[in-house]
Amino acid sequence: MYRHVSRVGAAVIIVAAAASVASAQGAQAVVASRPTFGIMVGGNFAKLSGDDAGDVDRRTGFMGGVYADLPVGTSGVSIQPRVLYSMDGAKLNNLDGNGTDATLKTNYIRVPVMVRYTIPTSGAVRPFFSLGPSFGLQIGCKVSADNSGVSASLTCDDLNGQVGGFEKKTFDMAGDIEFGLEFPTGSKSFTVGGIFSQGFTDTFTDVKAHNQGLSVYVGLGF
């Protein structure tokens, strides 16, 4: 009799524990499947890559904007479209062979569409990675040059009119790869991440050089 009661009691405890875990998992699934919106701001370290890129360093600029995170079921997969302002370009060393250094400043409105996977964990920190295409619209292009303390600045259109070879392309296509960590805090989430972006289209018509960038950011979702 005693052993029978003990086994029944143990079974009740196991069933109750399983129900508690299932309930907690169900609550997490509801939270995870809720669409969220947020903002992200950070820095962009941009350069040019390609056959005609030459000797270039990275230009440091601002990157930021808004996003929506749209879960696909409860699998940890979501679609995350974004609208970002991005300062791209590059620092060009010894541009003319006579010691002239220049900075190419190209600014874009970018619309990445990322497919994100959040890795399930037992803790509060959620690692994730994502990838997807990024569509860019160039809204500004300028070249600033300096030689022996003498500086000048021209728009790309003006520079192209004077010396040629700087006919800009308005549309830019790139691919992004991203890794980061998400810290849920109640109804909000705090995110830190890094994005590598590789351009597929040339920045200028007659120059084989395309954008390349490494961004770090913080985000707040709600």
Structural notes for this entry:
This protein is an alpha+beta fold. Helices cover 18% and strands 62% of the residues. It has helices spanning 2-32, 156-163, and strands at 36-49, 56-57, 59-71, 77-92, 101-118, 126-147, 150-155, 171-185, 188-204, 207-221. Strands 1-3-4-5-6-8-9-10 form an eight-stranded antiparallel beta barrel. It is elongated and about 60 Å long.
Assign an overall shape.
elongated
Q: What is the radius of gyration computed over CA atoms, rounded to a whole number of angstroms?
A: 25 Å
| Average predicted confidence as pLDDT | 87
What is the number of E strands? 10
Which structural class is indicated by helix and strand composition? alpha+beta
What's the end-to-end separation, in Å? 56 Å
Number of helices: 2
* Uncertain parts: 1-31
- The proportion of residues forming helix, as a percent range, comes to 10-25%
Name the beta content range: over 45%
**Which strand order spans the largest sheet, edge to edge or round the barrel?**
1-3-4-5-6-8-9-10
In sequence order, what are the helices and strands, one letter per element? HEEEEEEEHEEE
In this structure, how is the largest beta sheet organized? 8 strands, antiparallel, barrel
